[in-house]
Amino acid sequence: MTIKEFARLCGCNPQTLRYYDHVDLLKPAKVDKWSSYRFYGEEQALAFVKIKNLQRAGFSIEEIKGLLDQDQPAILRAFDRKIAEAEEKLREIKSIRQSYQKEMNRIQEKIDAVKGKMLQSMRAYDPTDEFGITPEEYAKIIEKVNLFFDNVAKASPKDIGYEEFDDDEATGEDKKYLDLLNDSNYTVLYEKHGWLHVRDFFGEIGALEDGTDYALLFRVDQSKGTYDRAFGFTILGMMLAKKPEIKCSVSCSVGDSRDGQNHFWFLKRVSA
């Protein structure tokens, strides 16, 4: 029978049969070499029913091919295995559902704790000499940081990271950030060495671009005094203030200098 007749018998459309032919699930019994018309035998309808139901049950094309020549008991055992897999997946989803809210609450508590420490640190910090900004400008930066933490729990597309290291702590994270300077995935857009204050060069740093990953790397001399989280978040806030609506990822690492001078690198990720 023609493909249209066979499709009518099986209760499907011819396109489905053409697809089954294309993926080698159900080949026509005969293909006319002149017209390329497909012809099917009535007994192939049983194979169609087997394929259709295995596909509906979630079996892959390759799995179905391996079952086509199996007898009924083997097919039913395959269905039993698929049911067992689905039941296990359902149990897993139910378990995730139960833990979801607890985990969300724990993360929110952590965000609130970090936010509280950060805001406390920033409010106690005087950025006037280092960054050359007014109290009014700094208040707006603090407001942006506060807003950032509010957006974290909402999966904000703007992502800010911050790392801080002590001079006597040669951590793996410190090495990771220094390795960015030799990472082919990153390019240095700007660098400054031997500076006294961030205000001396901040205006030379280019603006951020949408959809781009950046890294700010500071290594500062201990003579600058004790720096804390406020240092990194202040410059992050100042950079984001250049384009308030920007959506990008900016990470910042602040650590101790090894040579008694202040160093800064502004890097851009150029490939995945």
Detailed description of the structure:
It is a single chain. The protein has 272 residues and is α/β, with parallel strands linked by helices. The protein is 49% helix and 15% strand. The chain has nine helices and seven strands, in the order ααββαααααβαββαββ. Strands 3-6-5-7-4 form a five-stranded mixed beta sheet, with helices on both faces. A two-stranded antiparallel sheet has the order 1-2. Helix 9 (229-242) links the parallel strand 5 and strand 6. The chain is elongated and about 90 Å long. The protein starts with a helix and ends with a strand. Mean pLDDT is 84; it is low at 155-174.
> How much helix is in the residues?
40-55%
Rg measurement, Å: 31 Å
Number of domains: 2
Beta percentage is 15-25%
Biggest sheet record: 5 strands, mixed
Read across the widest sheet, the strand sequence of neighbours is 3-6-5-7-4
Average pLDDT: 84
Structural class: alpha/beta
The tally of helices reads 9
N-to-C order of helices and strands: HHEEHHHHHEHEEHEE
> What's the overall geometry?
elongated
- Identify low-pLDDT runs: 155-174
Total beta strand runs: 7
